[in-house]
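step: validate -> pass
step: tokenize input -> pass
step: predict -> running
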Amino acid sequence: MNRSFCIAPMMAKTDKPFRFLVRQLSKEALLFTEMLHTNSILYGNRNKLLEYDEIENPIALQLGGNDPKSLSEVCKMAEAFDYDEINLNLGCPSPKVKSGNFGAALMDQPEIVKECLVAMQENSSKTISVKIRLGINGNDTNKTLDDFVNQVSSVGVKVFYVHARKAILDKLSPKDNREIPPLNYKRVKKLKKDFNDLEIIINGGIKDYYCKENDFSDLDGIMIGREAYSYPRKLENVDSFFFGKKDKRISLANITNNMFEYFETLDNKKDIQRGLIHMHGLYNGLKNARKIRVLLSNSNYFMPAKNEIIDLLNNDFKNVA
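step: predict -> pass
step: emit ->
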């Protein structure tokens, strides 16, 4: 599978409506689900595994957890669905995740990680990958990271998505952990050099996808999170630039219309509300962006608002012309 460009998993963001939105702009980018804890599937809403559509492929299912048996059971369940990959989250720094001893906290427990990954591979025909940080807390990002990657790859895991920051679990919030620990792209590049047989995809703070300054060409791909969510129109050149394929090139008015038609197929009002919020970033930079966001904010009025929004878009682009 081509992982040249990936959309990072983001809680409360990379749900089904947002993934449908991304597919209006790119056919080729690898998408991720939000992180789903194994317990939420085994003892909660099993339908979470169903919350995707074939239009979203290629797509990776991201799981959280630290129990090999639970992870293997979910992987076995996922065999019935058309996910292209299953990813174990070893990078989330939230207090809730830390208290549950999964996510980034597991980077200090490579033996447990190995047991989990072996169990997952035994019950899945899909590629099993991991998403990690450079380290946590006071870990040495040189020796400790190499030791961790060496141990994880020894059980057959070959795909690593690397957030190019450490995670400070005891002092920083999840938001601060995305901003305060310094980015270290050089360390990720060195990781690829030292483990050339692995696929290394870089993540963290990448805003200009098409800029040559950072030069990630020696890596196997890049993963974009908040920037793609805030400015989804930047995705419209992804297919040609990263995959050598034809871009979709759908007008903003048509994307808007497609989203509203999609909302009509959803039974859950909360899904529609989230989808309307996800659309806000589509209009950033336009003269009528604020008016459009106001119209999108009323989920009870959203269908009548469609034509008003499209009229505002047409006026915006007439003024540009």
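step: describe -> Residues 252-320 form one domain.
step: cleanup -> pass
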